[in-house]
Amino acid sequence: MTQSQLSRRLGVWDAFFIGVASMVGAGVFAVFAPAAAVAGGALLIGLLVAGFVAWCNATSSAQLAAQYHGAGGTYLYGREVLGPWSGYLAGWSFVIGKTASCAAMAMVFAAYWVPETWQKPVAIGLVWVLVAVNYFGVTRTAQVARVLVLVALAGLLVALGTGWGTMAVGSPAVALPEGPGGWYGVLQSAGLMFFAFAGYARIATMGEEVRDPARTIPRAIVAALGVVLVLYAAVAVSLLALVGPERLAATSAPLTLLVEGAPVATAVLVVGAVAASAGALLGLLTGIGRTWLAMARESDMPQWFAVTHPVHKVPHRVEIALGIVLTVVIALVDLRGAIGFSSFGVLLYYFVANVAAHRQGVEHRRFPRWLQVAGAVACLTLVVTLPWQSVVTGVAVVAVGLLLRGLGLRISGRSAQS
Question: How does the protein associate with the membrane (predicted)?
Answer without folding.
Answer: Multi-pass membrane protein
